[in-house]
Amino acid sequence: MSVPPGGSTPEDVAARGAWPAGTPRTTGVVPVLSRSAHDRDHLGRSLPDPTRGRPVRVLTVDERRCVPVAEGADGPALVWDEQPGLPVGAVYLGEADGVPYAAVRGERALTVNGRAVDTWSGLRELGTVLGDLDAGLLSEAIGILEWHERARFSPVSGAPTTIERAGWVQRDPVTGVELFPRTDPAVIMLVHDGGDRCVLGRQAVWPPGRFSVLAGFVEPGESAEAAVAREVAEEVGLTVTDVRYVSSQPWPFPQSLMLGFVARAVGDDALRLDPTEIEEARWWTRDELRSGRGPEALPPPVSIARHLIDRWVDGELT
After folding, report:
1. pLDDT tens digit sequence for 92-118
2. Which of 85, 114, 134, 191 could in theory staple to 199 by disulfide, Cβ–Cβ 3.0 to 4.6 A?
3. For the purposes of burial, counting CB atoms within 10 Å of the CB of 294, is it exposed (0-12), middle (13-18) or buried (19 or more)?
4. What pTM does this model have?
């Protein structure tokens, strides 16, 4: 289960025994981190001033990918720094309702431009509780800033890159080659038997009792559907058919796009585990998952894994 970095750590795990009573279910037709309510304004990035002379709201992201949050009557909200123009080093995120937004790396503070900060939190904690606008902007901010942290030098010449187009292009000053943000596609799939059972597995690094759907990266020259079939065969020894796309979700830890699928197992249903990938896997019924007699912990609602599980339990995915 070679999930992307950051996707299999204790930070993502609900407390032991917390599901289903202690962990809210996913809601909506799309995974929570796929929500967005702003215009990324692709054409604006090429302008000398993408804000077009308007004040801009800037989000500070610290080295731990945390951002300032204020608690309000309607729940948590990001604390944006109101600036007269785009700060040096900031990345332009786009606009909503005529207001430009940007993100910049910075240090934690108790206030942001005179506004109190209640806490600094990350996308995992905030993804399910923010509104659509803040959630979409935060996912974009984390993803683009992580790219800048990891791509300071050109892979062509090794020279330090220069930043262009409001943070969306890096240029190799030696060769002139333009370098664009990288996204790594990964498949994540719920495998079922065409009836009332699905396969959930666990990695050894996870806390005891946590199970999830299978996942893995798409390899060069491979389609997403072929990656689903290959990863399932490698990890649990099953042959699958009827591989169907469900939805996708960004996972900027640091730069993945999770492509969600369902697939139906055919033939022998015995599980033969890859010991380097999977510590344990088994078939679970809908009733076991629905009643809480399933795994002691499942992925949190911020993950597309939980989205797939909840929709399958509800009979929406077959």
Report:
1. 999 999 999 999 999 999 999 999 999
2. 191
3. buried
4. 0.89
